[in-house]
Amino acid sequence: AGLACALDELGDTAGAITQLRSARDLQPDHAPVYFAMGFCYEKSGRVDRAIEAYHEALALAPELRNAHERLAAIFLPIGTTAARLRAIVDELHERRHVARHRTTEV
């Protein structure tokens, strides 16, 4: 993830995302990688992907304050309620549970 941060600092957000995807593949349970992906997606205007990445980070590490803050920064200006945010998080937790269950069956 270090190279991804350097690329992002140099303005190569797309390159950073590519590096972070590789890091995610190597460490699929490492929440900071998902957070960094979310941040890069957000910077590049891909807010839907950013939201997904932040939620993945929170599914792995619910205490990750930065992910909560970024989601608040995205949702609060558009009037999304706390109940809706909780529903989104619950849905992502369920998706992750189903995905893990499928991989253990194979």
Low-pLDDT sequence parts: none
Number of helices: 6
Order of helices and strands: HHHHHH
Average per-residue pLDDT, rounded, comes to 81
Structural class: mainly alpha
If you compute it from the alpha carbons, what radius of gyration comes out, rounded to the nearest whole angstrom? 14 Å
Describe the sheet with the most strands.
none
Range of strand content: under 5%
Distance between the termini: 30 Å
Helix fraction bin:
over 70%
Protein architecture, described:
This protein is mainly alpha-helical. It is 79% helix and 0% strand. Helix 3 (31-43) packs antiparallel against helix 4 (47-60), helix 4 packs antiparallel against helix 5 and helix 4 packs across helix 6 (82-105). It is globular, with a radius of gyration of 14 Å. The chain starts with a helix and ends with a helix. 29% of the residues are buried. The model has no long low-confidence stretch (mean pLDDT 81).
Q: How is this structure best summarized?
A:
The chain is mainly alpha-helical. The chain contains 6 helices and no strands.
Overview features:
mainly alpha, 106 residues, globular
Q: Topology of this protein?
A:
Layout: H1 2-9, H2 13-26, H3 31-43, H4 47-60, H5 65-75, H6 82-105
